Structures are given as C-alpha cells and as structure tokens.
Amino acid sequence: MSSTFFSEPLSSVLNIIATERGWSDVKSDVALRDYFARVGSGAAERDRTRSLPHSEIRELASKGLGALRVPLDLGGNGWSVPDLLQFVYELAVADANVAHALRNHYLITELLLTFPETGWRAERLQRVAKGAIIGEAHAEQDGARMGAIGTALRPFASGYRLDGKKFYSTGSIFADSIWVSATDQDGRLRWVDLPTDRLGISILDDWDGFGQRLTGSGTTLFDRVPVAPEDISPEDIVSGDRIPKQSVFAQLFMTTVVAGIVGRVASDAVELLRHRKRSYRHAIANQPREDPQLLEQIGYLSSYAFAAKAAVDAAAQPLAAVTDSFRATGDHHSAGEVASLAAANAKLAVDEIALKAASLLFDVGGASATSEKLGLDRHWRNIRTLSSHNPRVQKARGIGDHLVNKVNLPPFSF
C-alpha cells in the first residue's frame, strides 16, 4: 500500500519537525511509515467484516501520536495545527475510519489548549501525553431542535448524578475518558469528563450508516452515573470566544479525512491498472496499463488528489493563525472568520472532487474492481457519509450570502 499519492511526502515534514524537536529523523519517519502501512493493509478487511480498529488506535496512542498538539512542557510533541492535519491526512490515506474516530480526541485536546493554565487543564493534557484517548458525547437524537440537550446533571449525595442518552459518540468506544454535555439544575450547559469504565456508562456499537462504519459513532447511555465535582469542566467549551476555533477545527479535520480518501483512491487506481490483465475487445491497447484512455483517468485522479490535498493545506494556514491569535490576545473572532471561510471553501471543493474520484476508480478497474474482496466501494461510501456532515447546500448558501450580502458566516458548524 502506497501511504500517499502525489502529496508532499510526510517524510519531509517529519524530518523538519524532528530536527526542531531533537528527535531522530530516521526513527520518527520509519516508525510512522510502518504504522501507516500496517493500518492501511487491513483497512478493506476491517470494513468488510466490521472489525473495529481497537488495536490500531491503541498502538497510535502508545506511540504518543495522540499527543501531537500537547505542549512539550506537558510531555507532548508540540506540533502545529498544519503539522497535525498533515498527520491526519496520511492516517486517512491508510484508513479513513481510524482518522475519523480520533477527531473528537484531537478536538477536545485542542479545546483544552484554550483553557487557562490551571491544574485541571494540565492534568488532562498530561493524561493525553501518557497515551490516553478522549471521546465525546454531545449530540442527541431525541431533541426537538438541533443542539437541545436532555442529558441531566443533578446534585446527588456529596456530588452529582448524570442521566441521559447520546448519539454520534464518534470514537468514544475506543476512549479512556469521555466528555459529556449536560444541563444542570439551573438549565446551564455543563461539560463532564468521565472515565469510560465509570459505573453506569454503556457505549454501544450501533452506528448503522453505510459509510465510516468503524468509527463507533453510535449510542452512549448514562444511567445514574456518579459524578464528582472535579469531573466537571470549569470552562464552557462552547462559549463565544471558543466557537470559531472549535467549529473550524472540527470541519477542516473532516475535510482532511475526505482528502486523504482521495489520495487512497488515486493510489488504489494506480495499483489496479498496473496489475490489470484483462481488457475489452475494442480497447485501444491489448494491455490495460498501456491503454491511453485508462491512463488518462489516472491523470485525472492524480490531479484530484493533488487539488484535494492543496485545498486542505491552504485552509490549515488560517486555522493556525486563529490559534496564534487566541494565544496572543485571547480573542480570535476576526481570524476565525477568515479561517471559517477557508474551511468552508475547502469542504465544497474537496467533497465534489472526492465523489467524482471514487466513481472514476471503477472506470479504471472495470467490473472486476467491484469485487467485495477488494472493498473499493468503501471509498465512495465513506466520502458520501463524511460529506453529509454539515451539508454542502447549507455551506454553499452561507458562503454566497457572506460574499454577496456581507452576512457573517454562522459561528457554529454549518
């Protein structure tokens, strides 16, 4: 499995970062390449058999790859946002399910970086540095409106009790702890950080989407879960000053995963054509790998992979500026608007390119490429599922209204 296709090699990025951090360039590069290769080689089979990638995610955590954004002084790697997204891209080329399953982990880590430098914050970031994976449970299916929270946090004994039901709990089934949104007795939104093995927590693998089937994006139940005061976040992670950074990061992360799938599609197409033996009677060449029409499709796929990667790379820079602005001044609304527009533009372009690429793959491979053993249909299914998050019709309208009528982009994911 080629780990990437017509994108800037991860090795060059790793070598730069490794030199700055004092790592061994070769060891860092080789270890990651080997990891990506192992993850990628089993991706199709895991999808076919619905085998959750527990060992793949555990290995990632044990290598410290969950702590890429954690500051050096807290035991992490201190990577920048663009560095992290480069890693996410490469991981998505290997297996989009593994990359997507970690979105909430990296999102919560990113949010912790915006918190005041307290012991509460440091303790959780140090857990990540030691290999802990964080999950999240926020969305609910039973609400009359999007964002309505029915999960309740109520005083009980010397602490609190948590009761509720969440869905779209992406990644929580692999996690050591889970961040849960709930309303307290005064109707305020609160966030609770709990170990996933806490009594009363049940995480189900009941996500039935036709794509991204291995991300653990199903139901989490909370039945009289005991909560200590120190489990409750002192900060509101969806407060006004964090909304731009939170939403843009979450959206661009997802688009980066889609771009990674395009890279894998292009790589798979090259391998298909290189080893394809049979051709059509009326084909221009006897050998498929010499057929100009088929080679032309490879050229298109190359350009789609290049364009998708370039789009997310370009959008990563304004997001990095948001991080810098928040760190310097505690405010990032103006930078957040620029980053939000960049992430939205990237999503629209990449989604369209990606779906086209996933279909074009079968023009290269022919009918034999539809074999379930190859699992190539997973690329289209995964892209379609990912692109349905924050639907593009709303995204395109928001961009148009912003450009024509100077209307601010929505602050949340849109």
UniProtKB/TrEMBL annotation:
GO terms for molecular function: 3-methylbutanoyl-CoA dehydrogenase activity; flavin adenine dinucleotide binding. It comes from the Bacteria. The keyword Oxidoreductase applies. Residues 38-131 form the Acyl-CoA dehydrogenase/oxidase N-terminal domain. Gene3D superfamilies: Acyl-CoA dehydrogenase/oxidase, N-terminal domain, Butyryl-CoA Dehydrogenase, subunit A, domain 2, Butyryl-CoA Dehydrogenase, subunit A, domain 3. Keywords: Oxidoreductase. The keyword Oxidoreductase applies. InterPro entries: Acyl-CoA_DH_C, Acyl-CoA_Oxase/DH_mid-dom_sf, AcylCo_DH-like_C, AcylCoA_DH/ox_N, AcylCoA_DH/ox_N_sf, AcylCoA_DH/oxidase_NM_dom_sf. GO terms for biological process: L-leucine catabolic process. Residues 256-389 form the Acyl-CoA dehydrogenase C-terminal domain. It holds the Pfam family Acyl-CoA_dh_N. PANTHER family: ACYL-COA DEHYDROGENASE, ISOVALERYL-COA DEHYDROGENASE, MITOCHONDRIAL-RELATED. This is Putative acyl-CoA dehydrogenase. It comes from Agrobacterium tumefaciens str. Kerr 14. The lineage of its organism: Bacteria, Pseudomonadati, Pseudomonadota, Alphaproteobacteria, Hyphomicrobiales.
